[in-house]
Amino acid sequence: MTAPRRVVIENCAIATVDAEDTEHASGHIVVADRRIEAVGPGPAPAGLTGVVRRVDAAGHLATPGLVNTHHHFYQWLTRGLAQDSNLFDWLVALYPIWARVDEPMVHAAAQGSLAMMVRGGCTTAVDHHYIFPRGAGDLLGAGVRAAREIGVRFTATRGSMDLGASDGGLPPDFAVETTEDALRATEQAVRDHHDPSFDSMLRIAAAPCSPFSVSTELMRETAALARRLGVRLHTHGSETVEEEKFCHELFGMGPTAYFESTGWLGDDVWMAHCVHMSDTDIAAFARTGTGVAHCPSSNARLAAGVARVPDLLAAGAPVGLGVDGTASNEAGELHTELRNALLVNRLGPHREKALTARQALRLGTHGGARVLGREREIGSLEAGKLADVVLWDLTGLGHSTIADPVAALVLGPPAPVTLSLINGAPVVEDGHLVTADEETIARTARVQARRLAEAAAAG
Fold first, then answer.
1. Residue-wise DSSP of 175-237
2. Does residue 260 carry a pLDDT above 70?
3. Residue 13 in 3-state DSSP?
């Protein structure tokens, strides 16, 4: 058997985000091939063999890689539009543009979205792609290809919509699928791409868009399909008061009750947003283990409201963080969501008791891993887990007087990433991607954004 290749990181503060929230003021991490071999205080054990790299990380904080639980990569091409709209007006403004995307556009947008997140400490990403215009090419495959090129751990959720404008939906008819086609394509995506292994870099989830853009039949049949294939389920839920009203008018019940009636509550399900939830709704999520992707920046951008994250956590529901699409969170970086989650939730009824800096870090790491059903593999720095590790540089002016490194990361300005490992391999060095050229990605995205704008203008 081949001896493991080891990477040794020493002299850094460490926030393990394990079950006990173990921290070390100065400690070490030993990575052996793809897994974490040891984490502890002080220097690494003497006599280690096969060491291919030693990192003196003095002045840095080591954390698990951040886990993004909700995104729409294609929206990278439509940032900065509909700046003063609520969700429904924003969708009405942007669907005619999004309906013109094609495979090269989606690939460029996925590269841009992923590059921005990965260089900011994200090691696991989710994309919810649900718009499939006829003749646009392999749009799901474009995202998969981009994730493979950049080297990020990826969950591609195969979204769907079967309610076009003629059926009361928002998107143009040519940008939606039939129920049968959506189900068939979802099953094919799982068979083509899903890898359930422990160290998987690619998983697929089934993800109809939202209660107001898909039929009840598609919701029910997708839940049955996903459980037959053994994959997770994802959708938008309880994002706005308008959605609450829509569900009561159309289904005679609120969103959570509707989801339960269609088989969409369970420990294999996670919902994006979940802003407008009653005590009964929260209890149902906690009882069933249904997860939440909290997207504070997007919720603020679209004036959706403040999710009841402290109450969800107190009830025991899984909660992670999401960037959401970059047309409603132009920053596109998950590490800024740590800060925004803490600050936005303190505007709610719990005020200063809503979240701590360490709870915010947990949301972005272990919480996200739990939402994706991967908490045994990622989300904390523990021996035996996959080596997704981030070193944050806290030596600069912006963090110079914050003695608590976790507070510096969460409350301070964005910290540069000196090193990011995914499966033990470097993807970021000194703040820049090592797996792709950022200037090329930016240039290509600009070209594809112009193509999309021209296609939309031409109708």
1. GS--HHHHHHHHHHHHHHH---STT-SEEEEEEE--TTTS-HHHHHHHHHHHHHHT-EEEEEE
2. yes
3. strand
Which conformational region is residue 332 in: left (phi greater than 0), alpha (psi within -120 to 50 degrees), or beta? left
Alpha-carbon dihedral angle through residues 88, 186, 112, 417, given to the nearest 10 degrees: 100
DSSP 171: S
Residue 83: name the closest of 445, 336, 327, 333 by CA.
Answer: 327
pTM: 0.97
Find where tokens 């090269």 sit.
104
Average pLDDT over residues 394-406: 98
Chain length of the chain: 459
**Which tens digits make up the pLDDT trace of 140-154?**
999 999 999 999 999
Phi, psi of 264 (to 5 degrees): -105, 30
d(Cα 383, Cα 225) in Å, to the nearest integer?
A: 35
What does the pLDDT read at residue 1? Answer: 65
Question: DSSP code of 380?
Answer: S
DSSP states of 300-352 as a string?
A: HHTT-----HHHHHHHT--EEE----TTS-TT--SHHHHHHHHHHHTTSTTGG
Query: Could you say which DSSP state residue 356 is in?
Result: -
